[in-house]
Amino acid sequence: MSKNDPFCKMKGMQKKEIDTLNFSNILNRLYERMIGALTVKIATEKVIKMLNQWYGMIRQQKVEQAIAIKDEIENMLPYMEEDQDVLLYFNVLDFRHKIMLENLNESKLLFKKLELEKEGIEKTDALLQYYFYFFSGQYEFHNKNYIKAINLYQIAEDKLKQIPDEIENAEFHYRVAIAYYRIKQHFFSLSHAQKALESFRADDSYSEKAINSEMILGANKMDLFRYEEAEMHYKNALDKSREEKFPYAESLAFYNLGLNYGRRNMLLESANCFRKALEIEECQKRRLAIKVKFNLALILYKLGLNNEAQSLCEEGLFDAQKVDEKEYIAKINFIQAIYDKEASGKIEESLEYLEEKKLWFHVAELMLEAAFHYKETGNITKAAHFFEKAHCARNQIFKVTEGLK
């Protein structure tokens, strides 16, 4: 039969068509399998396990791991079996995640969303209710609303009684200790910090939290004028953070040592510690850098190094404005107003935010700084004025606790 025979041509065409058809079928089958795989629902138990792992990373302050697990969970959620409680659980943990990242604008939006879902949360189990109130307390804490934070922690504590988790109890005591410290309820703070420290020390996974708990003990003892004891806590925290390679905890230990030496008028030692804190990269990534720059600038002003102090104030102010850190905007403006003649008109104005937030301890501290500065420069009238204002602010500290339920 000739190759030009129409029957031969038809047979050739049929073979090509058959080959094309087979390839098309293979593609269709692969596509169907892929779609089928995507439409298979992921069990809620698997997602819950991932959510628990995510919160574990948040508690341990392992930021990169927490971000990675969150991304993985977000990819799973569209294919999860429908469960509103699990979605609520995700939103509540995401709220805590954003607080960890110091992303207060996004956490504010999520807080408002969760407030609208409060009725639904109240119908869930004790764990989810506990997380809602506990994390809401942390949100209020980061917004300097310390009394609101403690009141929310007290509601969370009732739910926590139903949760037999030693580390979660430690986390609770840790957060409450910090909140009580901020309103200068030192003995409450010491009690909670000690409980947190004992539990965290018993679990090697939480050694960084143990270090931080020890620094809370140091902070309270420093305020109680037990400077040498506080220094021992901070040096111990510094040694452990270096040994276990926790750079942020190391920078925090240097910062606290700087505060301790500053209170004791050991200005060169204080400045040295603040500089060491700023040298650590992890410090620069966090709001801690703003606090360090403010305190270092204050020490440098006292040492007469005004140019370097002014430069640090400008850096700190820029950083604080970028993240809307109003407490430190106020504090930096205040010390500039005292030491820089060009900014002297901002003294009273810079305190408005601190007074509005009832941060009376900080108001009293700044007033004393101003009083001693004017006393040293021979301006007795201004010195007397600020001593009086410091006394009034200290009286207000005791009234703050009236808002506790």
TrEMBL record:
GO molecular function: any one? Answer: hydrolase activity
Cross-referenced SUPFAM superfamilies: TPR-like
First-level EC class: hydrolase
Keywords tagged on the record = Hydrolase
Task: Tell me where on the tree of life, at the top rank, the source sits.
Answer: Bacteria
Enzyme Commission identifier(s) = 3.1.-.-
Entries under Pfam families matching the protein: RapH_N (PF18801)
Q: What is the official name of this protein in its record?
A: Response regulator aspartate phosphatase
Species name:
Bacillus sonorensis
